[in-house]
């Protein structure tokens, strides 16, 4: 019988860890202080990593540590000690991209699971099978594969080998993320976690003998974002993801906000649980699909799952769609009153939604706002201020209060 797939959430710092745990992740992946592909994230030192593993394991959640850069000769000497210290923190797996790192990990921390990063570019069952024989427990497949490709790999590899696939988040215009644009233009190496995302920039052509004469690649005033990939969103295809034999549904976004982690993890958690409960009669509720649009995102696509994407790039701009703002986090509820901490300004009379783990969001009109001194205020306009407001519904600590963003 097929094992229920895991929901794998991104964690860029300790705050995002808490929301991933609360909103339904089966496992989280994160970076340490070295050898990780997100140099701009806060990342986890060994003390924080140890605490993270303890908290996650108390909730039955696994922790995977990214070690998926391509190390230089100068860094190799640091690798064995880094691997030993990481394993001692209690991680459940190392995510690696380099064959040398894989073999060193097998020698130095033989009891730690090895997951092969998408950076390795696994696109066929022969490679996946050989990596399994080399000691890998899991392969994170290249994002450029279709359902047919994934099923073929599943059918031709040992059942003990896990298959992990990205189901949501940013896509890269380069194969498996192995891009040199950022390195060429800025000296920031994408393969060492420093990508500046020049693929998202606005480009014009300039004719060699006519300096200053800029020619738009497409004829509209905003120029052309010819390299700007749409974001991936597969929540409408939960049945196909499960039937393809995927072990782990991976959400991209270690550099994204706690709100993104919470909302997207919650959406995929509930969609998978609904499908697993009754596959024959499964239908995705509209509100779950809408949840994926209530986070900051680029235009969505289904990536390569259905073959070569016809509309994989978005040419109008390189920015995000953001239609909702987090205005508060719930600290507790008692006797019809919510205690909260402010995150963005909002006012009495505003229409908000409150999202709790495992629930459909609940609309609420803010009847009043009372500050920590018991004074009724017209708005919550001080960063991180403590306040209370009436709510007939009980919401647990960590629930998110959000408001539709004002049009600009």
Care to count the β-strands? 22
Low-pLDDT ranges: 219-224
Strands of the widest sheet, in order across it, are 1-2-3-4-5-6-7-11
CATH architecture of the largest domain, by name, is Alpha-Beta Barrel
Number of helices: 11
Termini separation:
52 Å
Could you name the CATH topology of the largest domain? TIM Barrel
Structural class: alpha/beta
- CATH evolutionary superfamily of the largest domain: Aldolase class I
Helix content: 25-40%
Q: Describe the main β-sheet briefly.
A: 8 strands, parallel, barrel
Please tell me the overall pLDDT: 89
Give the CATH level 1 class of the largest domain: Alpha Beta
* CA radius of gyration: 23 Å
Shape: globular
Number of domains: 2
Quick synopsis:
This protein has 408 residues and is α/β, with parallel strands linked by helices.
Describe the protein in words:
This protein has 408 residues and is of the alpha/beta class. It has two domains: 6-174 and 229-301, TIM Barrel, CATH 3.20.20.70; 324-404, Beta Barrel (Elongation Factor Tu (Ef-tu), domain 3), CATH 2.40.30.10. It has helices spanning 14-22, 46-58, 73-76, 79-88, 99-108, 125-133, 147-155, 181-186, 238-243, 258-277, 286-291; strands at residues 6-10, 27-31, 62-67, 93-96, 113-116, 138-140, 162-169, 204-206, 214-216, 231-233, 248-251, 300-301, 324-334, 337-342, 346-347, 351-355, 362-365, 369-371, 376-377, 379-380, 386-390, 400-404. The protein has an eight-stranded parallel barrel, surrounded by five helices. An eight-stranded antiparallel beta sheet has the order 17-16-22-13-14-21-18-19, with no helix packed on it. A hairpin with a 6-residue loop joins strand 16 and strand 17 (362-365). Helix 1 (14-22) runs parallel beside helix 10. The longest helix is centred in the middle third of the chain and has 20 residues, at 258-277. The radius of gyration is 23 Å and the shape is globular. The relative contact order is 0.11. The model is unreliable at 219-224 (pLDDT under 50).
């Amino acid at each position: 019988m097929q094992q229920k797939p895991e929901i794998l959430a991104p964690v860029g710092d300790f705050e995002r860890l808490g929301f991933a745990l609360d909103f339904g992740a089966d496992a989280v992946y994160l970076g340490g202080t070295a050898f990780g592909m997100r140099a701009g994230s806060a990342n986890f030192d060994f003390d924080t990593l140890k605490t993270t593993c303890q908290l996650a394991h108390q909730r039955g959640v696994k922790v995977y540590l990214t070690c998926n850069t391509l190390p230089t000769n100068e860094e190799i000497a640091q690798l064995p000690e880094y691997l030993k210290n990481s394993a001692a923190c209690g991680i459940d797996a190392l995510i690696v991209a380099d064959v040398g790192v894989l073999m060193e990990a097998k020698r130095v921390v033989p009891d730690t699971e090895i997951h092969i990063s998408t950076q390795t570019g696994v696109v066929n069952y022969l490679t996946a099978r050989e990596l399994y024989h080399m000691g890998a427990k899991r392969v994170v497949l290249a994002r450029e594969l279709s359902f047919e490709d994934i099923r073929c790999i599943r059918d031709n590899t040992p059942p003990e080998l896990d298959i992990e696939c990205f189901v949501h988040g940013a896509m890269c215009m380069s194969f498996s993320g192995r891009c040199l644009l950022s390195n060429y233009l800025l000296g920031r190496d994408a393969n060492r976690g420093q990508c500046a995302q020049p693929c998202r920039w606005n480009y014009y052509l300039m004719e060699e003998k006519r300096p200053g004469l800029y020619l738009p690649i497409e004829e509209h005033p905003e120029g052309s974002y010819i390299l700007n990939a749409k974001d991936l969103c597969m929540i409408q295809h939960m049945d196909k993801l499960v039937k393809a034999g995927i072990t782990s549904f991976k959400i991209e976004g270690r550099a994204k906000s706690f709100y993104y982690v919470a909302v997207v993890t919650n959406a995929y958690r509930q969609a998978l649980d609904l499908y697993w409960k009754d596959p024959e009669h499964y239908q995705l509720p509209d509100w779950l699909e809408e949840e994926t649009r209530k986070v900051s995102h680029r235009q969505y696509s289904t990536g390569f799952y259905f073959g070569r994407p016809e509309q994989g790039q978005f040419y109008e701009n390189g920015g995000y769609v953001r239609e909702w703002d987090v205005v508060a986090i719930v600290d507790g509820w008692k006797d019809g009153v919510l205690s909260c901490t402010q995150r963005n300004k909002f006012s009495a009379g505003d229409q908000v939604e409150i999202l709790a783990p495992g629930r459909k969001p609940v609309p609420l009109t803010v009847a009043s706002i009372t500050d920590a001194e018991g004074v009724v205020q017209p708005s919550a306009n001080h960063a991180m201020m403590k306040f209370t407001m009436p709510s007939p519904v009980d919401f647990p600590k960590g629930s998110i209060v959000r408001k539709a963003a004002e049009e600009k």
